[in-house]
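Request: Could I get any protein with tokenized structure?
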Amino acid sequence: MKALKVYLLLAFTCLFLTVSAAQAQTSTPAQTPTPKKGWSNKAKGAAIGGGAGIVTGAVLGGTKGAIIGGAAGVIGGGLIGRNKDKKKDPERYKAYRNKK
């Protein structure tokens, strides 16, 4: 029964990562800049890190491990994504950083 849970969690994680990585790309003319929409790198990193942490923690440490792994994944992924946002697009980083 435990092996079945591990396989289901692994399959769900692969499906989640595959679906979240596939995004439609549209091309717009260079004369009309459009504001960026969608998730920031910080949000993407936190979501992916949290999912991976939950699965890894569940496999290695059960329920308590899933909670700890998820929290560590969210924090680590968020920090990595935040640094990517700062480097790639400083204006966007400042815009969502100062939201209230």
